[in-house]
Design brief:
Number of helices: 23
Number of strands: 12
Shape: globular
Radius of gyration: 47 Å
Strand content: 5-15%
Distance between the termini: 124 Å
């Protein structure tokens, strides 16, 4: 047999383990010492030196004939009776059981000649005079071949089974595989590289001599077994004489158990993918074709929202034509089946609409909760949850992010549900099992597929509850901000503007429910009429104070549920009472003054609440209404002002829409005895009523609002008559918008002709936010002296 060469070296030179005569069996075994001749009659005794127990031209397991006689060779290469650790042990020539030699001679389980995988220079190739790579369980040829390769048959060996042309693994003298057609998933002009185990060194259990026998990287569907069935390779199909494959001494098994997941995938794909399919298309996906029916995620919800919008548009058209059933268009979402309580579902709906529409919570609460058919207790609990979640929005997201490996895993809709349970555990001290159970149901109502994720997150939140607020509030400003659910930048600014004590009090009180105050409209009713109506509704009215001043017609309602009473609701519908904070009513009284102004200009009238209050106070003090002109930036607010003015009996000289920073383009030239500027501000004094403000506003927005207020004051100053008053009002507590604005205006050229006038026995009116007190408002009065 011709010696294969690589880089000009013989296989023996490559391995350094013996020549063709001294190895595991004859011509090409694995020798460890000097090459030996391997002549017949060599010393094969157990104690003989290594390499001397071989016979020339014989295989490693037996003699040169298949007669069944005991071979004088025994095991070649190595000490007697010591098998190689990579070989499957089979009784050899030195076995005491002669019946196994009979089986080998008859082609049963033993090979008559040839090393089981070996040949010239390779323990897998066929010997020079042996069968091509005899293997335990194969009588004629190795399943993949011979000389120099464990797949190819030797020069004198024969291949088992029908001939299929040149073997895929066979190699010519040069050690290169023959040309072949490109494999599947391979370009015809792409370079081919074989798959090498153990680095191709030939020292591994499946290696070849010097890398010559490296196993090529074949596609699974190009491999065929001896029976010709495509699919898994031959070594997965079994072999003759093997119990697993139904050989001559075994029983056929209907299907072999896969040895690994990779084997299973190859076999499965071979059955599922056709030969003309070039790409795997998810045939093994267990949910193939069902993903649109299970786990409706964000995409499905968006599609449902679009369908709902289209349906609502259709119903609007029907109502316009006078057909169809009238329905409210509140934009509510349809929940999936769940077991959450009605109060929590209502709170979830409110918080979701506040987030999506960027609206205030109070109007949505009136639409979703107050108008629902829930019990009074459920309505109160739903309101508490909705306002609490909206006021702690950013902090709840921070805690949820701490419980997530990747914050992006929880979408906005899922977070809406998680925030409610997180709020219950952190701020309402709810038991973990109850909050988590209801939180999972809320998540299921939004996205059934995310229920498991929600359960895991809420359990982590429960464990984080012991570490909250993640620092010492006495020394750490961030921890202090977390305690009161404020952004860190806002807590720092409040401490700088108000001082530590007042800032801490404001943040603490801002998370409590706001007290309810009403104003009796003297244009439509008397105070006694309102007091009697509330008494019949089960509520007592007490006169209210703000900044030490008792405002006429202002009352505190101890029982807010009285507003749902039919008689009280009638008072609101007839314009006899309205809801307004006591501090706002005090500011309106300061704007009217003790002497009736001949004309009055209100800038920033909005919905007209202070307009109604000032005209009612003027009616009480002077017996008549003021000559009042209102200006606002938005047209829709001017329209709403006119509607409310008609409802409450308020007289308006004129109402115009325009930019107050450029009053010359809005108003005709003239002057007013009193100009009241209800300035746009950050609204930090009304956080109990508008809790969502703290998470929407920024520090830059506060400075921008202060600049807008300053521009309005400069534009309004020329419209104040000499001796007249310019009153500034805000509902915030920051220095830049209140005291700092007073100084800024007086030091500007526009404020040179003004002086600061006292209000309520003080330079300014500044109510502090305390427990049970009215909101924090600010007012300052400038008198034009020249």
């Amino acid at each position: 047999m011709a010696e294969h060469s690589m880089n000009g070296k013989t296989p023996d030179d490559q391995r350094g383990r013996g020549s063709a005569g001294g190895a595991r069996g004859g011509a090409g075994g694995r020798g460890r010492g000097p090459a030996r001749s391997g002549r017949p009659g060599a010393d094969n005794r157990p104690g003989a030196p290594r390499g001397s127990r071989a016979a020339a031209g014989s295989g490693s397991r037996g003699g040169s004939s298949r007669s069944g006689q005991r071979s004088q060779d025994g095991r070649s290469g190595g000490s007697a009776g010591r098998p190689n650790r990579f070989d499957r042990f089979e009784p050899g020539a030195g076995s005491r059981d002669a019946r196994r030699d009979d089986r080998r001679a008859s082609g049963g389980r033993g090979a008559a000649s040839g090393e089981r995988r070996g040949g010239a220079g390779d323990r897998r190739g066929g010997g020079a005079q042996g069968r091509s790579g005899g293997f335990a369980g194969k009588g004629a040829a190795d399943r993949r071949g011979g000389a120099g390769d464990r797949r190819a048959g030797g020069p004198q060996g024969s291949s088992r089974g029908p001939s299929r042309g040149p073997s895929r693994g066979s190699r010519p003298e040069g050690g290169r595989s023959e040309s072949r057609e490109p494999r599947r998933f391979e370009r015809a002009d792409a370079p081919r590289s074989g798959f090498k185990r153990d680095g191709g060194s030939g020292k591994g259990p499946r290696g070849a001599q010097g890398g010559q026998g490296a196993r090529p990287n074949r596609s699974f569907d190009d491999r065929k077994s001896a029976s010709g069935r495509p699919g898994a390779p031959d070594w997965k199909q079994g072999r003759p004489g093997d119990r697993r494959s139904g050989g001559s001494h075994g029983v056929a098994s209907p299907e072999r158990r896969p040895r690994s997941k990779k084997m299973f995938n190859e076999r499965s794909i071979a059955h599922l993918v056709e030969r003309d399919v070039q790409v795997y298309r998810g045939e093994l996906d267990p949910k193939r074709g069902l993903r649109e029916q299970v786990a409706p995620g964000r995409r499905t919800r968006e599609r449902r929202d679009l369908e709902r919008d289209a349906l609502m548009e259709q119903r609007r058209a029907e109502r316009a034509r006078g057909t169809g059933v009238p329905e409210t268009e509140d934009g509510r979402v349809s929940f999936y089946p769940n077991e959450a309580s009605p109060a929590r579902l209502a709170a979830l709906e409110v918080t979701r609409q506040v987030r999506v529409r960027e609206a205030y919570a109070q109007p949505i609460i009136e639409t979703v909760i107050d108008s629902s058919d829930m019990s009074a207790e459920d309505r109160a609990f739903a309101t508490l949850l909705a306002l609490g979640v909206v006021s702690t929005y950013g902090l709840l997201d921070e805690v949820i992010d701490r419980a997530l490996d990747r914050p992006a895993d929880a979408f906005d809709d899922v977070r809406d549900a998680l925030r409610i349970s997180t709020y219950e555990m952190l701020f309402l001290a709810k038991q973990a099992h109850a909050a988590i159970d209801q939180g999972v149901e809320l998540v299921r109502a939004i996205s059934p597929s995310a229920a498991g994720l929600g359960n895991a997150i809420l359990h982590r939140v429960d464990r984080l509850r012991a570490e909250f607020p993640f620092g010492d509030p006495v020394r750490d400003l961030q921890a202090l901000a977390r305690v009161y659910a404020f952004p860190t930048w806002m807590a720092r600014r409040l401490v700088e503007d108000l001082g530590p004590q007042d800032a801490s009090t404001l943040m603490h009180v801002s998370n409590e429910p706001a007290p309810l105050f009403i104003a009796v409209n003297a244009l439509r009713a008397t105070d006694q009429e309102a007091i009697d109506a509330f008494a019949r509704a089960g509520a007592t009215l007490r006169p209210a104070e703000a900044a030490g001043f008792t405002v006429p017609g202002c009352y505190h309602v101890a029982n807010p549920r009285a507003l749902a009473h039919e008689e009280v609701r009638r008072l609101f519908a007839e314009g006899k009472v309205l809801v307004s904070d006591a501090a706002a009513q005090a500011v309106a009284a300061c704007a009217v003054g003790d002497e009736k102004p001949g004309s009055m200009l209100e800038i920033g009238s909005g919905r007209g609440t202070k307009t109604i209050l000032m005209q009612g106070i003027a009616q009480r003090r002077f017996g008549s209404q003021l000559d009042l002109t209102a200006v606002d930036l938005h047209d829709f607010k001017i329209d709403l002002l006119r509607e409310r003015a008609a409802q409450y009996g308020v007289a308006l000289r004129e109402a115009r829409a325009g930019n107050a920073a450029n009053l010359d383009a809005v108003l005709d030239p003239g002057s007013y005895d009193c100009v009241f500027v209800d300035a746009p501000c950050s609204g930090l004094g009304t956080l109990r009523r508008h809790p969502e403000i703290r998470w929407r506003i920024t520090s830059e927005a506060i400075d921008a609002m202060a600049d807008t207020t300053y521009a309005i004051l400069r534009a309004a100053a020329p419209f104040v008559a000499v001796g007249g008053r310019l009153v500034l009002s805000t509902c915030t507590v920051t220095y830049a918008e209140n005291t700092g604005m007073v100084r800024r205006f007086l030091e500007s050229p526009a404020g040179e002709g003004f002086a600061l006038a006292p209000l309520l026995d003080g330079p300014c009116v500044a109510t502090k936010l305390q427990k049970g007190s009215p909101d924090a408002h600010f007012a300052a009065c400038f008198v034009r002296v020249r």
